Amino acid sequence: MSSLEKVVSDLGGTNTGRRQTPLPDPPQYVATSGWAPAPLRIGSLVVDPAVLQAPMAGFTNYAFRQMVREYGGVGLQATEMISARGFAWLDEHAGDPPERLWGVREEPRPLAVQIWDNDPDTLARVGASLARDYGVSVVDINFGCPVRQVTQKAHSGSYLLRYPERMESIIRGVVQACAPTPVTAKIRLGCSRDRINAIEVARVVEEAGAAALTVHGRTAQDFFKGHADWEQIAAIKPHLKRIPLIGNGDLDSAEKVVSAFHRYAIDGVMIARASLGRPWLFQQVAAALRGRPVPPDPSLAEQRECMLRHFRLVIERFGEQKGTVLMRKFACCYAQGKPGARHFRTHVARVSTRDEFLQVVVDHFPQEKNLVSS
Fewest C-beta in 10 Å: which of 119, 226, 241, 272? Predict the structure, then answer.
């Protein structure tokens, strides 16, 4: 069997008649320490471990969530960020759910859906639908997105941090509409370094009835530049009386997550970009938090098989052409940081069919021999 035939077979193709080989179950580890952070309580929902997967527009769709789920270790997963206005329009005119809600009705719980807009009534109506019709575990409101299309054009996301009273109105309405489903909020430290108001906003979030607060340790002006300020995140904790504080930013290893829990006054953590090409990161974090040996990264061959499983889910949903184009960015994430990654990215960015994608994987995805030669 050629290399390409092997890839097609593992992907679930019919050319060879072989069944797709599923990812192996993660190995079991014996505890070496009794320490672990307490389970996170978001309203009536218990999140254990207290490790959340961040909602990321364009990335955390059902296929990605399924890859994370297969490795395990995450306490609460989240969809991509959903436009409440777009949801409402589709519901009224087309009767179809947003594409970003792919898989939400059927997949395991707990699951959070994050929504954004600046209109309290629209957000409340959409939140109620998510809680009632979709049965989601948590409705999260985005007050942290720094992207211009959301902030300057739609006056939403982190733009609203300058208007805490507006945030309070939004949160109160969504909490009332979604009850008893818990409602949470995600914010940044402020709009800019000279306008940090996270403590004031945190008080508003709690008083408005939210069940938890997630804080990214940068300002909207920072985007993703520099480093997340965990001291500023932790400074919020004394000002919260009843709801948990979840920290977010720059958590790219199990060691950093353990350090965050030990060093800062937080109740949970949220992992974002570092997991995009490493869905096994949550498994490693969970092991470290429980005092167990941290499982090593999968071999490059195993990582390739994970990526191909991801690809199969995407093309099953979106079809060959759209699915292949969508998979380009995920493939780049899987190769990031490995020898030959730039070469692989150059080739995979041009693919438009299933066969082209598979051939690029065979020819250019990093292999163990590249590590030896480098």
Answer: 241
